[in-house]
Amino acid sequence: MNSNLAFDFLVDKENNTLTVRREFAASRQLVWDCYTKSELLDQWFAPTPLTAKTKSMQFRTGGHWHYAMVEPDGREYWGWMGYLTIQPIDFYTSTDAFCNEAGEINTELPCANWLVTFTDKGAHAVVETVVTYASLTDLETTLNMGMEAGMKSIFVRLDELLNKFQP
Amino acid sequence: MRRDIFQAIADPTRRAIIALIAVQAMTPNALAAHFDSSRQAISKHLQILTECEVLSQQHQGREIYYQLEIDKMKEIDQWLAQFRKIWEQRFNQLDHLLSTLKANQQ
Questions:
Q1: Which residues of B touch A (CB under 8 A)?
Q2: Neighbour-count burial for A131-157, b at 16+ CB within 10 Å, e otherwise
């Protein structure tokens, strides 16, 4: 990570929120585009070694982003981001849920509300993402069981690490 | 053999057990119903989790309920740093994308 760029990651177990704040060395408009255009989202949203691919996206109130996180072996985890309110280039709110390839929401897994705010910091931009879960259990479940597919790869890496340290 | 929080969460079945018990205390039978593994295999995992002090036993009549030791789970907060890494990776990729886009604009 670029150590010159501010990064905060806060888990608030009392309010069931996760707050992620990050500075970017680019204009607010450009960063906004990267968050709101599927061809750009596909290039960064999936944590390594996964890749993101968009099935459909309409970035407007009531619209959605239907995407998959794809593992190197081809396994896919489908996600659905539903857009609630949009105020370019200040903020948007959305609901983040798990779904299948057909776009049917999985109601057994936790869904979360996102508030994503974009502000200027000199020539840079700062994006604050506040992820709110319905309950502490949902937050714990997501943290324990996997936030999108990314957690899975972290678990795998943790397993590798633990194996290395074990006699 | 090591008995600590990381040993506890090193196995996928044990992680699933922790997530289930985080919601409510459960008996071994109720837990086993969630898994394809044998009852013996689940008992072994419960034993390890108890030795790791992640779970404790509570006797209610003839039943034994397993409950989560919240304080022990707090050690996992350090492990949250791993979770933070996901976002870091994402943002590093976004940094790259932004510098590419900026270069193309010029």
A1: 2, 6-7, 9-10, 12, 15-16, 18-19, 22-23, 77, 79-80, 82-99, 101-102
A2: bbbeeeebbbbbbbbbbbbbbbbbbee
Rounded Cα–Cα distance for residues A95 and A82 (Å):
5
ipTM of the shown complex: 0.72
The more confident residue out of A20 and A115 is A115
- Give the tokens for residue B31: 């837990």
Q: What is the pLDDT of residues B52-69, one digit of tens each?
A: 888 999 999 999 999 988
B96 interaction partners in chain A (CB closer than 8 Å)? 44
CATH of domain B1-74: 1.10.10.10
Report the residue from A11, A30, A158 with minimal CB separation from B98: A30
pTM of the prediction?
Answer: 0.64
What are the residue boundaries of the structural domains of chain B, listed by start? Answer: 1-74, 76-106
State the burial class of residue A163 (Cβ atoms within 10 Å of its Cβ: 0-12, 13-18, 19+).
exposed
